[in-house]
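FAQ

Q: What does a record look like?
A: Structure on top, sequence underneath. For example:
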């Protein structure tokens, strides 16, 4: 199912990390969990929407959970990352589809 997607939007959950492992562009929504600690490994880090940190905050990778932060993520932020994903990892016709480099 994920392999058929041009981009996936997901909170920090198993499906998000499966997409990253499958090299499917994924926009990760991080509010409760620390993206510096549990963010995507190796690729698609530029597609993370960080509601976890305060603006300009240089928080430590080991910082713990922060409840109530998902509400800080706006529709505009998500749409901007989706647009960036589509622009950078533009879909090709299915017969010529090539996934993002690993």
């Amino acid at each position: 199912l994920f392999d058929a997607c041009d981009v996936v939007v997901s909170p920090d959950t198993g499906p998000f990390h499966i997409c990253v492992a499958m090299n499917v562009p994924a926009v990760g929504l991080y509010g409760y969990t620390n993206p510096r600690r549990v963010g995507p490994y190796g690729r698609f880090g530029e597609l993370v929407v960080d509601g976890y940190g305060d603006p300009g905050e240089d928080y430590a990778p080991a910082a713990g959970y922060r409840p109530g932060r998902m509400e800080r993520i706006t529709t505009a932020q998500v749409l901007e990352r989706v647009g960036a994903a589509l622009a950078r990892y533009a879909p090709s016709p299915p017969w010529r589809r090539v996934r993002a480099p690993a």
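Q: Is there anything notable about this one?
A: The longest strand covers residues 26-30.
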